[in-house]
Design goal:
Blueprint (H helix, E strand, L loop, with lengths): L5 E3 L2 E3 L18 H8 L4 H5 L4 E2 H10 L1 E3 L8 E6 L2 E5 L1 H7 L14 H10 L19 H14 L11 H12 L5 H15 L3 E2 L2 H11 L10 E2 L7 H13 L9 H10 L1 H7 L19 H12 L8 H9 L4 H19 L5 H15 L6
Parallel strand pairs: 2-7
Antiparallel strand pairs: 1-2, 3-8, 4-5, 5-6
Amino acid sequence: MALKDIIFDGAKFVPNNYATFLTKSEAPSELHFIKDFLSHSEIGFALTQPFSICGTQVLTFWRTGHYDYGGKHGTPSIVFTANEVEYVVTPGAVRKALHLPESCQFSSAVEEPLLQQMMANLGYEQSLAKLGQLKRPYIRKEWSFFFNCITKTFANKCSNFDAIPILTQQIGYALLNLSHFDYAKTMLCFIGDRMKEDKNVVYFARFCQLIYNYCTSDEPKLAGELMEPFRLAKRAFTDLFTADNKKGVLRPLCIPLSVKQALLNVDAATYSLLYPDVQPTNTQQPSAPTPATPQTQTSAHANQSSAPTMKPSSSRAKRIKSVPQTKQNRRRMILRDESEDEAQVHTSEPVAKQLRKCLLRKLMKLGVLGP
């Protein structure tokens, strides 16, 4: 059942960007594992927050916003004004506003064969030849609910939620296979495109509120302007079970290993009984090794050879920056650098005497002086 538009200050808030308040009190027990998985996934915050939106603040963002796609290789952005201050919204700002993960490199679009394999593994019962025409009634209720949550939250539309769009499949694949989907850039482009179409027809009201909150540091809201966001209705669960009952024979429920491991991390006491042969993943990502500095490298070497620790010379860095990089000067700098290093290791002799010996040896090797 589609919800009606909300009218506020002459603008129409269309029913999309639904909130899926992921509590177990409303959902049947068969769907609890999907709710646990989604609520603790990387999109858990984006699926549920905020619990209310301020019509004035959302319209300020929507009506003053100017969208720039950024070109083929550029970065999309929205510039809006609130309280006489301009704010620039980039994908990075959207990630922070929606509590989405950062990544050094986001995954490109998943190829069709991989999406087809995913849908087949989840028990989709009809042809997978045309991925853009998949429907939720042809998959088990558990995964129908999974895709329904994604579609109603992220899809750039306000109707035909029985479909499983390509975007929903891409997001589902990212969640099930732990790949890095760029939710923030996608949502920013969707919002910007809709913003350009009509300043009085608002899409993605929840995300607009979260972006506004992040940029303005949670500016206070007037109680009389608060509205509840669109959210999944209880009737959705009844529809899911009705669709399953009509099928007669159901395929066995397939739960990917990544989902089972994630559930064990969420509630080991409950899910270890259901999946006794599965080990939870390490919830703490191993920290990246710290690049070794010259001090740590030479200290390790000194411990092995019982030689004094070598410290980098600050004067050396200054010389490298100031001396022109000709072939002759490079040779001179190498000589000075190596002689200084050797001088710091052999500390039993006076420094000046060590330098003279090192320089003489190097000059003899280069043929500048005879033996």
